[in-house]
Design a protein that fits this description.
The chain is mainly alpha-helical. The chain has one domain. About 75% of the residues lie in helices and about 5% in strands. The chain has 3 helices and 2 strands; from the N terminus they run H-E-H-H-E. A two-stranded parallel ribbon has the order 1-2. Helix 1 runs antiparallel to helix 2. The protein is rod-shaped and about 90 Å long.
């Protein structure tokens, strides 16, 4: 009789082990898919960021004669896209690319553009 109890417990443990392995596999697949989506979002974000920054700086430049623009303290549309950019936790290469973009746009509109990064932290 005790052998049947131990056999039943063994079968139950195996069923639980298999179900945990299936769940682990499903979660790892979901993680991989999420990482792929984040990568795709980052690739699509820079053209959008370039466009929004250009439009927002152009509008800002028409309204202001100041040379200094600080993103993070204004109500420009581009700040929404910057929030998404920082929410995706950019790496150093992406930060450099953003700096180059801001430098290029600053030279085009004769403005010094800085970012108050603390305003974009979640």
């Amino acid at each position: 009789m005790a052998a049947w109890i131990w056999f039943g417990l063994f079968v139950l443990a195996m069923v639980l082990l298999v179900s945990m392995a299936v769940r682990f596999n499903r979660l790892s697949d979901e993680r991989d898919l999420l990482e792929h989506r984040i990568f795709a979002a980052r690739n699509q974000l820079f053209p959008l960021l370039d466009n929004e920054l250009y439009r927002s700086i152009k509008i800002w430049r028409k309204k202001n004669n100041a040379r200094m623009l600080t993103l993070g303290g204004t109500l420009l549309e581009a700040e929404r896209v910057l929030r998404v950019f920082y929410w995706l936790k950019p790496n150093q290469e992406e930060e450099r690319e953003l700096s180059k973009l801001l430098g290029k746009l600053g030279a085009k509109f004769d403005a010094d553009i800085t970012i108050q990064r603390k305003n974009f932290s979640s």
